[in-house]
Amino acid sequence: MTHVLVLLLALLIGVVAGLRAFTAPAAVAWAGMLGWLVLDGTWAQWVAHPITVTVLTILLVGELVTDQLPKTPSRKTAMQFGARLVTGGFSGAVIGTAFGYTIGGLGAGVIGAVLGTLGGYEVRKRLVARNGGRDLPIALLEDGIAVVGGFVIVWLATVI
């Protein structure tokens, strides 16, 4: 796979992290465990361990639930934004590592997280406004896009 495609996948997984912080690391963990990303012998091989996959999956499900709560802070607050930058960069680095581009993947993942955080916020805000102020259907749509998108992105690493 060319470095441009690897960086594109890392950027896209960062966008997913911008939408839902724990979806991107859960997706790369599952991809590692399923052999979609070959991480053996790298710094990231621990990501594919069943315990890591389980913990990240629990965090993902927890995030999907807490996102629906009215007191959940905006993704643009410092703590929420920072978490997305970290998980986007990490997930991008894992994808990059599978193809020998760890640092490039890290950078692309962080950039994608910025795009996903800010872009996702704006799109959700506009869709909620068009939907008569009903947030739940839009939040659930965003959840689905993040989860399905995350797994499609890591699966694409096996076919591109």
Structural overview:
- With about 160 residues, this protein is mainly α.
- The protein has one domain.
- About 75% of the residues lie in helices and about 0% in strands.
- It has 6 helices and no strands.
- Helix 4 packs across helix 5.
- The radius of gyration is 15 Å and the shape is globular.
- The N and C termini lie close together (about 5 Å).
Largest sheet: none
Task: Give the end-to-end Cα distance, rounded to a whole number of Å.
Answer: 7 Å
Low-confidence stretches: none
Number of domains: 1
How much helix, percentage-wise, in residues? over 70%
What oligomeric state is this?
single chain
The helix/strand class is: mainly alpha
Short description:
Helix content is 75%, strand content 0%. It has helices at 3-19, 23-34, 50-66, 78-98, 102-130, 136-159.
